[in-house]
Design brief:
Structural class: mainly alpha
Shape: rod-shaped
Order of helices and strands: HH
Radius of gyration: 17 Å
Helix content: over 70%
Oligomer: single chain
Amino acid sequence: MIKKMAWDTFKKTGDIDTFLEFKQIENIENNIKEIQNITNLNLQDGDKK
């Protein structure tokens, strides 16, 4: 939701700070997904032992 609001604001205003915030949020979301994937892999490996 924040990502959409930041993107919409950037499209309306052209404010580069808003765009940079949008990119930071996008990076944070990607990092969270990566951590979740690693955690899931570790949990699956632990079940095999």
